Amino acid sequence: METLSDTTWDVIIDGTGASQSLLALALSRSGKKVLHIDRNQYYGGSDAAFSLDEAQEWAERVNKGEHRSTFKDASIFKHDASSSEETGISPKLASSRAYTLSLSPYFLYARSQLMSALVSSKVFRQLEFMAVGSWWIYAPEQSDSENGEHGAEKVLYRVPGNREDVFAATHISMKSKRTLMRLLRHIIKPNEDDASNEDDDMSMPLKDYLASKFSVPEELHNPLLSLSLSQLSQQDTTASYALPRIQRHLSSIGHLGPGFGAVFAKYGGGAEILQAACRASAVGGGVYALDTQIQDCLWRKDAEYSEHRLLLKLANEGSVQAKCMFSSNVDTVPKEGSTPLVEVARLISVVSATFPSLFPVTVEGAPVPATAVLMFPGDTLDSPHSPPVYLQVHSSDTGECPHQQSVIYCSVALPGPEGQALLESSVDRLIRAEGLPATVLWSLRYTHSGRLSNGEPRRLIPDDAVPDCYVFPPSSLDLAFEDDTLELVKEAWKKVVGDEVDDADFMMFDDRDGTSDQ
Amino acid sequence: MSEPASANAPKPSSSVKLVLLGEAAVGKSSLVLRFVNDDFQENKEPTIGAAFLTQKCSLPTRTIKFEIWDTAGQERFASLAPMYYRNAQAALVVYDVTKPSSLTKAKHWVAELQRQASPGIVIALVGNKLDLTNDGGDVSEAAVAAQGESEEAQAGEEGANEEDDVQDAVSGDARKVSTREATGYAEEEGLLFFETSAKTGTNVVDVFTAIANAIPESSLKTGRGTGAGTGQTSLGRSAEESRVNLDDRNAATAKEGCAC
Questions:
Q1: What per-residue confidence (pLDDT) applies to A89?
Q2: I need a labelling partner for A338 at 20 to 30 A (CA). Which of A364, A388, B87, B140 fits?
Q3: Are B35 and B202 in contact (CB under 8 A)?
Q4: Nearest to B80 among A288, A291, A397 (CB)
Q5: pLDDT digits (tens, 9 = 90+) for A194-203
Q6: In the predicted model, what is the mean pLDDT of chain A?
Q7: Residues A166 and A230 occupy one common structural domain
């Protein structure tokens, strides 16, 4: 039988995270010989999705610190099943494989470049997308102004995402509505307003910008911050960061269908997308080997090796020759001048409730959302200076958990026990706000280090020590897929296919025979 | 089951992800080719990596669209299969009725699926190359086919039995795995079981129809067999209502994609 060493590879891709897997997809019809390996026994690296048992094993490995990792301090909580038998109401935890839990849960805006690439590469046919529906703000202090009987429980407010929403919103005053409409118009069509001194103002904190430029009342600051998905507090988020991202949100709504602006891939989000990309690469002849680690990498300068200068020693498979290699950031120490890494606290909770009120269908003909985004401002969690907490609530329509249960992905840009305490308190408040007899059946806590996007495009990093080796920069901890990843993948693709291939051919593929609907 | 379908309404349609597994050269791709195109190729090239095909299967009450992942039997690193059976609702595990070792491999696959795949996955065990046995009908044709097969076997790992195979084939029966043995195993493990011939078409459509019928209603609606299905999603609406349809819009999106 053939061994890996018998082939001279054009490309070796090390790691099966999103960037590397998308590169494998981009090269799937290039005729290049691609060897795609991962040191782990599973796909996805830090973008992986796990069953409960796999998550348990993962947590143990993280805590052992076997090799450098972007994760630390993982711990798992399991609800004591005997106590739920007493109450007799809670659905119990199902079998391990009934769950698919993402380490890096992110969704895609409808106008994301990745969305276009998935469509043009025909990979979307192997994926199912669910709508990300409403954005909600936790605002307990506003409940005083509500005089309805259910006022006490009404602490979550839907963030208006378009003009119709603004008009329909019952919790915003007429005056606020007018300023909000003016702001939304400005964000969508900035050129219509005369904004000569715009640049100076954009470095202001978002809240100052909103107040001084548009007299936006304070009650709307948090809702607008949530649309930007900023992981920093009001004070630390600049207008130049937030406004384009609010624009991204607003302009995405309706792009792929009525009533929503973002989608989530069923069965594990990014983890499902990257596996679909790897499958497409395998259909094109890419060779896959998990549990395979590179021990040593040698660049040979002698003329006889001019066609394949790299010699890589693999842990189990001997040595392989290649022209170039692309890897991830795990083993590389961030360089001077590159974006410093930050740590966020993450919590994944499996809850025995469905939160139907978080998934309204707001427009006729819209798909039923499977995901909702909730923001808990720091001050509502008795921690006024902390950054906001984000919750992504996933219904069982995402295929990630059994019926009658939900998965809640929580994150805050504040690591350690302090951050974890905020996450837990947010989940508690959500359950209490919904007034449901819900129990947290299972949860996983961990610290994830990466980078917060700052609007500056990332570049592929050439390896200092070895020519023809390139490193994808650290991935982002954002809730939404960061679009410049596609630019990085394109840059890498270009290095492999060379200049004779037209840029416009990137990710443009026909349906393979027998795979279209007709 | 839940509500009576109106006579004029189009039948509900569901996608089912199906993965083919089995040793090299047992005829996995040929089964798919027969099912999808009603065609057969002698001496088909081995599948490299994997292949993906789709085919609709019409049942009295609904239409099933199979999304078929055909894996390469020679895949050496066992790294691809987990990606294919992830979230698969059905698996077709194929062996060659003339090759006992291929049933052993099939049993390994069944065990791995039961250990790793989605709970509630429907598994069908399929003994292919029925045309090479006495049950397969035309004897002379079977013998010719066996010649072709023996060439294939040379490329594979087992050269030793090759002479016998040809002998048996000429005598009209190359069967080495009895129907009774395979049925017994399939019953023990709760698998659907068929013997097929991709070459003549015997039982091929039947396998896929049986799988389509065996997929639980709840799994069709949620896309995953979670076991305790009520036939409803958590929000009391069918999963089709929550699926975002990109097909209607993909042309427009693709255009925008390359314009920037």
A1: 55
A2: A388
A3: no
A4: A288
A5: 555 556 678 8
A6: 88
A7: yes
